[in-house]
Sequence to fold (381 residues):
Amino acid sequence: MVRSELVVRLIESHVKKDDDSFKTTVFELINEEKSKGNDLVAGQLKRASRGLAVYHLSSLKPRGLEELPTAESGLPLLETRRPVETFDDIVLPIELQNSFCSLIKETKNRGTLHLWGISTPSKILLCGPPGTGKTFSAHVLASELGYDLLYIRLDSLISSYLGQTGNNLRKIFDFARGKRAILFLDEFDAIAKMRDDMNELGEIKRIVNSLVQNIDMFSSEGLLLAATNHPQLLDTAIWRRFDEVFWFDLPSRKERMRIFQIHARAMPLNNVDFDNLAVRTKDFSGSDIEKVVRLTARKAVTEDATVISEDVFLSCIETIKYKKIKQKIAMAGRNGFAQKKLKSEELKKKAIELRKEGLSLEEIGERIDKSPTTVHRYIKD
Ligand SMILES: Nc1ncnc2c1ncn2[C@@H]1O[C@H](COP(=O)(O)OP(=O)(O)OP(=O)(O)O)[C@@H](O)[C@H]1O
Ligand SMILES: [Mg+2]
Fold:
C-alpha cells in the first residue's frame, strides 16, 4: 500500500476509534519506510509509537482472542506488548548477537528441526547488571520473531493473597500454552526474593515447586524468557529448568560509542565526537547513556538550541555521573560509617575529575555541595 493510503487508513482508524487497525497501520507505515531505506523516519515513527506497543489483549476480544487472566484482586496478571524495536536499535557484543540470531533462526525453523527429531531451546534466562538491555532484548526478540510479548505483571502476581501465587502462575502459563508468543518473566528474582520477605517456608517451597512444574510443562510453541540482575538469588532447581543462559554486561568503549550514536541518531548535531563521549562514560550502562541523551535533548530544547554541540552532552554526562554516585550512596547499605566513607571517597574522585577539567574550587563546591575549603582538602589529599 502506498504511503498516502496508509495515512488515510490511519485517520479513519482514529475517527472510528479502532485501536487495533490504528496500531496495525502504524506498524505497516514503519515497515514501509524501512523497506524504502528511510531508516531515520522509520526510527522516528518507532519512537513515537512506543506507547502503542502496550495494550491489553482484551481490547482485541472481538477477534476471538481470549481474555487476559486476572488475579483475585481483579488486576490483570499479564500485559501484552507488540514491540517495534529491532536489532538496529540495540548494541550487543558479537557473541550475544550471535546467540540471539541463532535463537531466532532455530525458533523460525522449529518445524523442520522437530521433523528431524531435534528439539529447540525454548526457555532462556537473561542475566546481567541493571540497564544493560535485558528487557530491551526481549522486545527486540519479540519484534524480530513477529511474536507478542506476554509480560507478566509481577506486582499482581506477588501482591496477591498468600497462597494464591501458585494459582496465578498456573493461570499465566495456561494462557501462554500453545501460543506463538514470548512469555516474559522480567525481574525474575522478585519471586526468589520472596524468601527474605516471607517467614512461612512451606509457602515459598510451594511457589518454587509450582514455578518449576509450570516451566517444565511450558509448550515449545512459544518462548519463555526470564530476566534477572541477581542470578545468585535464584533457586538451583529453577536454574536447571532453562535451556540456555544469555549473559549481559556493561558496554565496552566501542559499544558505548554506538549506543550514543543510536540514541542520538535523530538529533541535529554539531561536530559531536562520540568516541570522546564513550571515553568519558566508563562504567555507564546502556540505560545510563540513554538517560544522558534524553537529558541532552531536553536541555537543548529548553535553551532554544537548533543544533546540539558536544558541550551539552558533556555537561549532561556529569549530571548523570553525579546521580549515579548519589544512587550508589543511597544503596550502600544502612551502615552509616560505610556510607559516609563511600560518600567522601566518591566526592573526592568527582572533585579531582572536575578540577582536571579546569573548574575553580568554588564551581566544584557548587557541583558537589561542599565548601571550597573541603574541595581544596579533597584535591590536596
Ligand atoms: N545495549 C543497549 N543498546 C542500546 N540501548 C540500550 C542498551 N542497553 C540499554 N539500553 C537502553 O536503556 C533502556 C533500559 O534498558 P533495559 O530496561 O533493557 O535494561 P535491563 O537490563 O532490563 O535493566 P534492569 O535489570 O534494571 O531491568 C533501554 O530501553 C534502551 O533504551
Ligand atoms: Mg529490565
User: Anything to note?
Assistant: Confidence is low (pLDDT under 50) at residues 54-64. The first strand starts at residue 54 and ends at 55. Strands lie at 54-55, 78-81, 123-127, 148-152, 181-185, 223-228, 244-247, 269-270, 308-309.
